[in-house]
Design brief:
Layout: E1 13-18, H1 34-50, H2 54-59, E2 62-63, E3 66-73, E4 82-92, E5 96-107, E6 110-122, E7 124-125, H3 135-142
Antiparallel strand pairs: 1-4, 2-7, 3-6, 4-5, 5-6
């Protein structure tokens, strides 16, 4: 069984998102599947700011598909909430990397944890074959820990 810890490791990158009506289900809360999209939003923007945009990775003939995800739901987000998506790089290995997330929302004057979790990613080529991160890319991503 995978390590289900989602401990945030500095630096922690944050981005905010206003919940749209389309994000909610018939119960008026954010549909559980949308949290993975929020994780992707945080991860993509963190990579863009601290390492490289995903488009550069794709131009190198690589993709980083999610191989495992874990979400622990603590409280629901609802329409018009301004949520904060916090993302951290938990680690990078020869052919994989892991990101941790915390999604919070300010309510009644205090920050509330809504969801925490992680995603693991493999480095694969366009044929879907597992390949090592190229040295330059691995170094750029690993450098996030030294910011």
């Amino acid at each position: 069984m995978a390590d289900l810890q989602a401990k945030m490791v500095p630096p922690v990158f944050t981005v905010q998102y206003r919940v749209l009506y389309v994000d909610t289900d018939a119960g008026g809360v954010v549909n559980n599947g949308h949290y993975l999209r929020f994780f992707e939003m945080g991860r993509s923007e963190m990579m863009r700011k601290y390492a490289v945009p995903y488009s550069d990775i794709e131009q190198a003939g690589l993709i980083l598909p999610v191989t495992e995800s874990y979400l622990r739901y603590k409280a629901p987000a609802v329409y018009d909430d301004l949520i904060t998506i916090a993302t951290s790089l938990a680690g990078i290995k020869r052919v994989s990397c892991r990101f941790h997330y915390r999604i919070t929302c300010k309510r009644e004057g205090r920050e509330r944890l809504l969801v925490k979790g992680f995603t693991n990613h493999a480095c694969v080529n366009r044929a879907g074959k597992l390949v090592p991160f190229p040295d330059g890319l691995r170094e750029k991503i690993a450098a996030i820990h030294h910011l």
